[in-house]
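fwd from M.: "can u put these together and see what the complex looks like"

so here's what she sent:
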Amino acid sequence: MRLPFQPLLIILFLTLVSADHPMHLASHELTVGAKRTEWVVRLFTDDLEDAVSASLGGTKVRLERTEHQGQAENYVRSKLIVFRGRKALNLHIDGFTYQPDAVEIRMHVDGGLPLTVTDKLLHERFEDQRNVYFVRGPKGRLDAVSTATNPKIELR
Amino acid sequence: MNVPPFAELGFYHILDVTAWDHLLFVAALIAPFAPRDYKLWLGALTAFTLGHTLAMATQVALSLPLNETWVEGGVLATLVFTAGRVVWFKGAPKSNRRGWLGPELAVAAAFGVIHGLAFAKDLGPLLPSNSGALWAAWGWFAGGIELGQLSVVVAVFAVRWIAAARGFSPKDFALALGALTLGISLHLASQWYLA
């Protein structure tokens, strides 16, 4: 039996060069209090290393090294802009945990909601990067997602 | 209406055009079925999703020491097995045989477990630590996966309908889809082995 679309199938087959389909994702977990908002961001280690490396002009980055963790924190600060109304907020870094698969950066901002976040973390690296927000506030849970086309999110 | 982020993630996890392993697995799983056999293919897909979701939950909660290479190899083995079975039976519709549904569901659930372990390895480190958010993420992710799979089912049935209009029997269609899936699966498996 000869399929009418056989050549197309063969071309399709030959173009399959890899089973890899990396997931481009980061997650933020915010716990909103009256006086401050605890903020944890988790990113894949290799993605963050590549992004920091690119921001440093190609320098090899290993996030298990303390000096490179500082560079990673600077990268996060540069890509994560937080406002309350018209006031820009400082993102205080409280800690950095390295794991081979993912890193966790613990931060906080003063005060609670509302917050306007422009999140461009890793968007310069991957068009399909999604940064997911899990927010636990006084009014319950809130989910949001930042994408390359829509990096700005409002948390109220 | 805002779509929950993890529902969207589950949906696109299945429908990602570069995610051949998922797309082909679902295609091979339903290849022998006609749309009217909805209890059968819907049961198999749901069993797969349940296995996938429970494995993810278990792995994230317990952090079992899994060998990444073997888990990835296991996913490819499920593909080769599922497609190979369609080819072995020459695309014969399973609804023509009796007493198969129980084993079919068990196999689909077991394969869901293997795929779920592979995904937990990737996604686990990024999941929220808060238990409420964690369970919500799992639930929405599972729903997104099921919806993504149903979209693949619709696409496969649409192609099946077009093939039927061009004179292909359902058996020939299933055999062609199974053979295509088997070929690509073996290609992916060889890449995994060489890597």
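replying to her w this: The radius of gyration of chain A is 19 Å.
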